[in-house]
Write a structure and sequence with these properties.
This protein is of the alpha/beta class and about 350 residues long. The protein has 2 domains: about 20-120 and about 285-345, Periplasmic binding protein-like II (D-Maltodextrin-Binding Protein, domain 2, 3-Layer(aba) Sandwich), CATH 3.40.190; about 120-280, Periplasmic binding protein-like II (D-Maltodextrin-Binding Protein, domain 2, 3-Layer(aba) Sandwich), CATH 3.40.190. It is about 40% helix and about 15% strand. It has 14 helices and 11 strands. The strands form 2 sheets. Strands 1, 2, 3, 4, 6, 7, 8, 9 and 11 form a 9-stranded mixed β-sheet that branches. Strands 5-10 form a two-stranded parallel ribbon. Helix 5 crosses helix 7 and helix 8 (about 195-205) packs across helix 9.
């Protein structure tokens, strides 16, 4: 009898161990559906993949949350376990600091997959005043302290006489959004560094450089529109003088009511983004928690479907995703299959 009880106890422990491989210390066991967090820009693409993924009949619908890239990274990197996300959607690449946070919390096995391209579109209502901007002009309009001085501009013509004499009213992403990070890196920093003295600060005083080049004004000149890019589109429709900043896919989906504003003479178009000519072009990613593969069902299959759907003739193209170059897509299909681990030296 004692032997029988011992065998039962051992079997119970083995089953508990299997259930908690993705449970961590406080995971509370495994799950039978994916949990995905992250970028609002990647969200509609992930939603489309989720719907197709479920239609196969093999998997339950993933729990999909639009948290913004930064907030999603914090959740993804919080630990390993069934109470933590399996996949992070990101409208920019993972930062070295985020990779370190993951490592610190035991998320040591991370797989990175480039799902395609997007562009940060600067846009306005179709009946808005004609405008042409550059990273420099946009930086001077929305920075908290352009070149280290308090921003006192009220109208676009205060920034440059060639621009319309209408109030600066820019609806854009919040600080938790990957779109905001890309705005900072691809446009704000470029405009800020047109000043040689500020450019030199990047090496001599990084903290001061970031305060000058990254911080965005908090008055009505820049209005945080939250994680819902569709809300920005609605704001532009109701206020023709306003300017919006969001992912290119939202511009493409709403071309009947909004139009792109050129940056450095280049319109935000599919071809300009793929070629890299447009200043606001960026790659988008998903990050997989390899610890959960084989425990939480569907992670690898979801990643494989995402890459497949992002082909030039894939269904995500209809939603505005710009296909990555063929060589990148082939490499990403291999990554979804073989799941090589991301290393810190691959990140900035």
């Amino acid at each position: 009898m004692k032997t029988k009880f011992a065998l039962i106890a051992m079997a119970t422990l083995v089953l508990a161990g299997c259930d908690n491989q993705a449970g961590g210390t406080g995971g509370g066991g495994s799950r039978d559906q994916l949990r995905i967090v992250g970028s609002s820009t990647v969200f509609p693409f992930a939603k489309a993949v989720s719907e197709y993924f479920v239609s196969s009949g093999n998997f339950k619908a993933p729990v999909l949350e639009s948290t913004g890239t930064g907030a999603g990274m914090s959740l993804f990197c919080s630990g390993v376990g069934a109470d933590t996300p399996d996949i992070e959607n990101a409208s920019r690449r993972m930062k070295a600091s985020e990779f370190e946070l993951c490592q610190k919390n035991g998320v040591t096995d991370i797989v990175e997959i480039n799902i395609g391209l997007d562009g940060i579109a600067v846009a306005q209502a179709k009946d808005g005043p004609d405008m042409a901007l550059t990273p420099k002009l946009l930086y001077e309009a929305i920075a908290a302290k352009p070149y280290g001085k308090e921003n006192t501009t009220k109208t676009w013509s205060d920034v440059d006489p060639s621009l319309p004499a209408v109030p600066i009213s820019v609806y854009g992403p919040p600080s938790t959004s990957g779109t905001r990070d890309s705005l900072t890196e691809l446009i704000m920093e470029v405009g800020c560094q047109t000043d040689p003295a500020i450019k030199a600060l990047k090496d001599s005083n990084k903290e001061e450089f970031e305060a000058i080049c990254h911080e965005i004004r908090t008055d009505t000149g820049y209005l945080d529109a939250g994680e819902n890019d569709n809300l920005i589109v609605q704001k532009l429709k109701s206020n023709p003088n306003a300017v919006g900043i969001f992912g290119y896919s939202f511009l493409e989906e709403n071309q009947d009511t909004v139009r792109g504003i050129s940056l450095s003479g280049v319109q935000p178009t599919y071809d300009a983004i793929v070629s890299g000519e447009y200043p606001g072009a960026r790659a988008m990613y998903i990050y997989l928690k390899k610890h959960h593969v084989g425990v939480i069902p569907g992670i690898q299959e979801f990643a494989t479907e995402f890459v497949k759907a992002g082909a030039r003739d894939g269904y995500l193209a209809k939603s505005g995703l710009i296909a990555a170059p063929d060589a990148t897509r082939v490499a990403m299909a291999e990554a979804a299959k073989n799941m090589p681990l991301l290393t810190k030296d691959q990140l900035k």
